[in-house]
Amino acid sequence: LEIASEFYNVSIHGRILHPVSINHSKDRILMERFHNFKEPFKSEGELWSYNSREFFISPREVTSLGEKLRIMGIDPGYGIVGYGVLELAGSRMKVVGSGIIETERKKSFPERLVDIFEGMMKLIEKYEPDEVSMEKLYFFRNVTTAMEVGEARGVIILALTLKKIKINEYTPYQVKMAVTGYGRARKENVRDMVMKILNLKERPKFDDVSDALAIAICHANSYAMKKRVGEFDVS
């Protein structure tokens, strides 16, 4: 009987317990808590006790410490939408894909919005992201530009919401802090750091792609930090 052992977190009613070791086999799952779990459970929904509290555990509530999360960073625009897809496994990030959705200037603005929507739906189908990160709208000197970017952003959000993909928003300051450690870093510094963090051999052709990857890195760091710190409280 082949048995593979890995380290896992166990989520109970939204709370994540400390790491446990789970042995998978064809006909059973054996679970041993480092400190408090002493008995295996044989089937989904079996009753467990933890610090005198009872709860049910199902296989769906078990998530690996080394689980892979696919994050799509998006840099919204109505002419060009940049995207970058990362796969996060523990603290490691790998680029899965990146590129742009480009709309034609000769088309009417509503037609360009349709192109963005259809492009996003294709990207979602291709990459199947678990979560998406985007920059929050910031101040534009040109009101017309702000409105058009906002409308393009709304179309993107619509596509993601229809596919029930979680959207995470960050300010430009938060993105720069996450990538460079300085919230007022120049865009060139951010793009250089994106190359170093992701071990890219050359800078992406479009700055929109670099910006999208930076936004994805920001969420990857935020997600990993929450996993390590905020969700391990079982008190």
Q: How many angstroms separate the termini?
A: 38 Å
Strand content: 25-35%
Helix/strand class: alpha+beta
Which outline best applies?
A: globular
Total number of helical segments? Answer: 5
Overall mean pLDDT stands at 76
Number of strands: 12
Radius of gyration: 21 Å
Helix content: 25-40%
Order of helices and strands: EEEEEEEEEEHEHEHHH
Low-confidence stretches: 1-66, 231-235
- Please outline the major beta sheet: 5 strands, antiparallel
Question: Which terms summarize this structure?
Answer:
disordered C terminus, disordered N terminus, 235 residues, five-stranded mixed sheet, 12 strands, five-stranded antiparallel sheet, alpha+beta, 34% helix
Describe the structure.
By secondary structure, the protein is of the alpha+beta class. Helix 3 crosses helix 5 and helix 4 (187-197) crosses helix 5. The chain is globular and about 45 Å long. The strands form three sheets. Strands 1, 2, 3, 4 and 7 form a five-stranded antiparallel β-sheet that branches. The longest helix has 22 residues, at 207-228. Helices cover 34% and strands 31% of the residues. Strand 3 and strand 4 form a beta hairpin. The two termini are 38 Å apart.
